[in-house]
Amino acid sequence: MLLSRYERMIARRYLLPGRSEAFIAVVAGFSLVAVMLGVAALIVVMSVMNGFRAELFDKISGLNGHAVINGYGGQVRDWRNVLDEVKKTPGVTSATPLIEQPLFASFNGRVEFALVRGMRVEDIRDNPTLKGKEVVGSFKRLTPGSEQIAIGSRLAESLGATIGSEIAIINPQGVATPFGTNMRIVKYRIAAIFEVGVYDYDKAFIIMPMEDAQTLLLLGDAVGMIRIDTVNPDKVGEILAPLEDKVNDKGQITDWRQMNRELFEALSVDRIVSFTILSIILLVASFNIVSSLIMLVRAKTRDIAVLRTMGATRGGLMRIFVTVGTTIGALGVGAGGILAFFFITFRMQVVWFIGAVTGQKVWDPEMRFLTELPAKTDPFQTFAICAMALLFAFLATLYPAWKAASTDPVQVLRYE
Q: Residue 276: is it exposed, middle or buried by C-beta count within 10 angstroms (0-12/13-18/19+)?
């Protein structure tokens, strides 16, 4: 929208009203603030929702893979041949054998639920989710037969154990005797304490070499499942479809969507609901722009009539008021983007500050799965939010601009 020189001058003058129009300036300021808050809230909330989904998916898939082959009866006996078959499948990037069993861990009289996972030593050290996540100790100390394990930081805290502590792992399915089944209790020394950032994992996971897990669970040479990673997690079903017939007699394929369907569907619904509700703020801001422009038109009725008598066109007047309203919206969008950047960058400090002021635990890992508030800003999504805010601001200017352009100079100046 191109403006002539006088149109730009008048639009600039109306953006900075005089003392007699201070109330109009206050209303316009509220409109700008409303747009700023709406844009900032949308960008921050959508970034947090995107970050929550991405972080959760990375952590879950990092430990559980994009899919797993669960053996019938909890065991895959011919796992080496199955592993070779999986690796030959186009689109599969890696496949690793796993043993996973819910058991109990005990230390100094305390007993906690634990999820024992057995992995090959090289898989433990190369796993991207575990790599570098040691709080104390090192995964390098885990070797077959060493009777050393790594446990999650929250589990260590619950047990009161630390590096070097000797904890007992209790397997209720022990050895059968004439007097019943004796629970199998084996003691291991903690070689590493890790924190992956997912509360449920840090609260329960115990990682040990696969050979030690086989001995603990009396599995012989069998494993419990085979973890699979693919080139595209969104197409994991298509990639693994040819594999189903080949491993159907060995186990069942379950992908990440089936394992975490409820969680990710809830996140998707939450994103849509949050976006819809927060968009109402932008609508309210648009109504504020309408109100401030209508007040400005009423205050400038005589000026508009004079401009019309001097040759100003209806289109020119519309352009002036559209420019005024759109500029307020654009300034609000810019300020909202800066505010959103501030909140996203210092999000944890903001959470701690709110918690200190209210005395409440704002971010509880037990409820939120992740130990820290994540954020991942999508540039396209941010652009769409800003464009939507500008569109609302533009539409809000049309009616006041039309009213200004419809002013009849004869009626206004009749008694002047």
A: exposed
